Amino acid sequence: MCGIIGRVGRDDAIESLVTGLENLEYRGYDSAGVAIQNGAGIKVEKRSGKVTELKHALDYGSLDGEVGIGHTRWSTHGPPTDENAHPHTDSTRDVAVVHNGIIENYASLKESLRAAGHTFTSDTDTEVIPHLIQQYLDEGLEPEAAFRAAIEDLEGSYAVTAMLAGEHVLYAARQGSPLVVGLDEDGFFLASDVPAFLEYTDDVVYLEDGDVVVVRPDGIEFTDLAGNAIDRRPETVEWDPEQAGKGEFDHFMHKEIHEQPTSLAQALEGRLDHDAHDVTLEHFPPGTFTDIERVQFIACGTSYHAGLYGSIAMNNAGIPTTTHLANEYEVSAPPADEHTLVIAVTQSGETADTLSAMRHARDQGARVLTVTNVVGSTATRVADDVLLIRAGPEIGVAATKTFSSQAVMLLLLAQRLSQDLTGASLANLEALLADLQSFPDAVERVLETTDGRRLATQYLGCQSYFFIGRGLGFPVALEGALKFKEITYEHAEGFASGELKHGPLALVTPDTPVIAVFTGQEDTKVLNNAEEAQTRGAPLIAVCPEDHQATTIADAHLPIPDVTPELAGLLANVQLQLLSYHAAAGLERAIDKPRNLAKSVTVQ
Ligand code: F6R
Q1: Is there an atom of ligand 1 within 6 Å of 300 CB?
Q2: Pairwise CA distance, residues 373 & 307, whole Å
Q3: Of 64, 119, 111, whose CA–CA distance to 89 is shortest?
Q4: CB-hemisphere CA count at 13 Å for 588?
Q5: I need a labelling partner for 483 at 20 to 30 A (CA). Which of 15, 90, 240, 278 fits?
């Protein structure tokens, strides 16, 4: 959350900064701002609202200068006002800073800075940073030393980029929040995430916690906080800018739903071995996990639902597996040791709750494996093992294509673990491998034939929407409800279908459609539960194959191809993604940037 962009180059920085902010807006969109170093000192423009509002207000003529920083904010300390927008400056406006993360000791720093005569104009924790730098400059330190001294005073998590009037330099530091350097022919970028500058370069250096960089037009120094040189090598990322654009779609979310045949094919590429009736996971050959006795999943939100999906497949294979919300893990997890494999599922690899749970698991001696989309993310550095889902950039705040790729990767991992822990393959491996081979085509069929838009329109304006499923259908029901509520702002809940009669049935009326997911596992019970709701007046929408028994009683039907239960749930999920999307489009919601949310939640 919060997006940082910085530029030091040979040409004016403003255009690439604004492009960077637009590309980073999925990280937060409460307010935005830029600061440019020009002949007259540092010029700051910032305001509450989206980047477009800032863009329309910019007077480009007055913002010439080759060095600049920008920021798009997801509020933590203080409401989204002009004053709280970044960049923040000290009282003299000689230092400008953008920051992502939380400065935990900001209150005490603010108090001592106030005592030293500093005046603050915002409610943010960030504002202490430019004041601290100024304080050290006033005490006689050189700019670089003043920056390092200020960083040394900070407790908490941060990615910070600062610039000082009169200098063609950016200073940056990272501790617990992501920061990457982009290198092009004309200079350097600093950003929270690679898509910020993907139009300009795909050569990047991922910074690590404790890194401090000093960026000048002709070079960059990578150091630790004490100033010792460190070795950081550039790598080339494989995402292209077109992938990161909206193409023919109105929203990134719609585009990303439609990208699933491709993202799934990428995820599966080279990982199915039909001849050997097995999976091939790079870095995880047979025998990799023979020391493991149990599995614990940790994740948040949609990734938690993917974890739940994987854990059901693993439990079905006889692997003792539990699933935990990452933010609850430290207070409620069962014990872990060196025979525990903790699987952290995280699209971004930067979710603070998940990273904290990963560190806790490592402290307990567990082996930590992350299933992630982002190469070089913090999760990949904290984990012992990494399994990449290769979904490509996901810009819409609501996770879609990454959920299906996570779930599929966890099914493959279930096979590897099943062999290593129980000596046997998954019970229906043969059918699963065959269906996986054609899975991208099955998803394509759902996308081509869906009736999601019509149904979304028909049921728009109901009081609540209940999603139910059993076994592998349960995480899909949870995910269907999460997607629906986050982008439509309508009330939606997901339930294990058997749980309806233990309380939620009291809420069921003709104004509460029940959307039932049928995977081929225990469908009769799901149908009974769905009928119990329908008897009480709820319209029933069945997500199941064409010739399924549920279609004979359902009020409406979202069809899926007939595949193994492990994959049926994921096809149903594509239908639910489309249902949510079209409902939100009908309500004219901010689909790619739902209110109050951000793509990458880097605070706890
Ligand atoms: C919902 C959504 C969130 C994320 C959650 C974890 O559509 O995207 O619930 O799944 O914030 O994020 P990652 O997977 O990046 O750890």
Answers
A1: yes
A2: 14
A3: 119
A4: 0
A5: 240
